Amino acid sequence: MTTRPLRAAARLVATALGRRKRLFAVQVGAVLAGSLLLLAAWPRAYHVEARVLARPDPVLLALSNPELTVPTEDPVRLAAEAVRKRSNLQQIVREARLADSWTTSRAPLLRAKDLAVRALAGAPSPKDRDDALVDMLENRLYVLPEGATVVIGIEWPDGSAARAIVAGAVSAFLEERRSREISSVEESVAILGRYRDEADRTMAALPVSASPASLDASGAEDGGLIWRTSRAKMAAAEYERLSGRLTDARIELTGARTRFDRRYVVTQPAYLPRRAARPDGAAVLVAALMAGLLLGALSAVAAEAHADPRRPAEWHPGAGLGAVLAVLALATVLAVVAGDGRIGVAAAPVLIAAALYGLWAAPARGSALVLLFLALALESPGDAGGQWRSPLYTLGALMLANLNLTIPIRALRFTGLDVVTALLIVVILTRRAVRSAVDRSDAPAARPMDWAAAAWLGVVLVLWGYGLARGGDFRNSLWQVHQYLMLPFAYFVFRSALRGPRDYGALARVFVAAACVKACVALWVRLAVSANPDVLPTATSHGDSVLFACAAAIVVALLVEEAAPGRAAAAGVVLTLIAAGMVANNRRLAWVELAAALVAVYAVASFTRTKRRVRRAITLSLPLLVLYGAAGWTSSSRVFRPVAMVRSLVATHTDYSTSMRDIENFNLAWTLRGRPLLGSGFGHEYVEKVKAVDISSIFAQYRYVPHNSVLGLLAFGGVIGLSGVFLTLVVGVYLAARAHRFAGAPGERAAGLAVISAVIVYLIQCYGDMGFMSWTGVFTIAPALAVAGQLASATGAWPSAAKGE
Amino acid sequence: MIAKLLLVSIVIAAVVLPVRAARARSARLGLRQAILWMLAFNLFYLFAVRIIYPRL
Hints:
- The structure holds two protein chains of two kinds.
- By secondary structure, chain A is mainly alpha-helical.
- Chain A is built from 29 helices and four strands.
- Chain B has helices spanning about 1-20, 25-50.
């Protein structure tokens, strides 16, 4: 990407601000005033929290009852259940008189809502109102364990009511514990007392002559007397036993009472909050100012573009600009206050509007390249083992993970990439429909590439429907098909957005820039989190192997084809940085991919001076390489780590990870046995004929998404699925290789080599590490296939339709 | 080692076969060759994974 568009954009904003001062000021003022007004009417939330220390007292417990074997409960763990019992919540509602305070504490906005609801549905009965308050308490009252402390808190619209609720909850907790720990002993004492009294009455009912002492002394042998004697002895023994147990229980009761006060200490009682926790007035004002400035700038630019007759029609947002800006100002005000002054939320309406406007107005190639950079360079949730987050984490999560991870709406089971790609397709199709000149292509993609991408989509849809018709699991099938489905659409975007060979320089720069960003991130994560691969196995993500290997292959292809004269030093710096990133990311597969890509580049590249030099260097260094390999074959020294890596790839004895992969491969081959033509279809797991280590606790979908995506495709799609998907890649390689032969310019030849390298790297990643399921894979191979199709047309390697063939 | 080579052979074939076919004089003939060779290889791969691989 050159800095020219950025400079032009900055100039456009500066000019617009200079000319539209009044509009700018009105928008800033509107957002500030609107936020202040809304803030006044916005519901308050007072936060109150209490803490109860629930420490064990084993000394007193052991002293009072050394023979106790009943395990003691963990009161902290059971606190939530104790406090949030329905009967306890009802009691809190009654004692805190929430029904009375609720109406008076309502904010003006909520009062208006209550009036509207009452007008429509009538006033609620006292019972309904109490039930609603209990439900609300159940949702808002939180009880959290913090070590040996129970934290009880709430956010409530009235401060004194919040204090009463938390105080009531603490009392409920203590009462529950008292009931559990003392009442049970009290009941035991009562039961033992009753039984002892019964034994006492039994003894008293016996004749005096049958008392154990007199019977022993007489030594009578009369049968009736012996029976009476035995009975008296048994009653006496029972009385003694029960008396002993009763004494123990009474000691335990005294101990439990003493223990309870020592064991449960309210370290922080419920307090009356001095001011509302939400909304935060200062934060809201700052956010309102920032969002207002942003909105003002956007409004000025939009108005300027709207009024400029020289701009193409597509740049005009339409006649309702005023209405759009007014709606945007309202949305900003709402976001400022509802987001409680969080800058990201406050700026979201303006940023989304700007992004949409940019997508609509800018040439599709610019949008597609920005999308590509974001897809490749942003971090996904779970990168760096979840141990490090960049400042752009939220943007990465929005773009690369399902939106419902960030926005709490379950239905959002798609990513930001899906949304932006869909919008780009809408823009492209609309421009085609109105015959716009904005995205006119120099070289339409060769037809076979389009047909192959369509075949990919068709095969995936058929396999998906087939798998679901066979009883497949829809939810888990989404894990399998999401990226497969996305690839043809991403291909369509790039083949329509890129104009032809003159855009490939920018495309290459985006790839290399993204790889450099990720390499820097990997190095930083190694420095900031851990350099130890046992602690942090991967510095960024597994999928970044594709990015690193492809970017390095692009640079090497440009060098070998002599397409970037005088840039050898810059290329050296870039390659060193990427190599450092690969080392930091610690993926063996990345080196395999790079090596395979370099072999392909060397094998297919033209006989340039550089290639001859490389060949000479390889020939000369071959004896040294053989010696190095032989010397280090059995060594574990760091000097011979490359040799150790090669050995691990070809050795017959395997490590734990390789054994697990071998078992998985065997199971995939076994799954294929029943249905070789169409496989099991998507939505099914592979058969675990041989049980490996169960990793479902880490990755529940592991049988839907095997590591070896190629064998997985064969198992789930059979030979028809495999052929349908591979057909696209084969056509891409064919067109790229042919275009390389026909290309006249070094840059075009380098582009052909880059496409072949990208397919090799992608396939190895698919074979070794879930490549078909990676966004990096999708956004590497989709532009590569687009380049293959266009390049074949541009170089004449494939006869274009215009020539009548 | 042979089992590994057998499984990874499809990755190699998916690149080598079309690059080889790209040398054909006619673009359409070369494309037809690339697709047919790949389909034939996929059938061999199916046989290899189903029959040969479990016995290695």
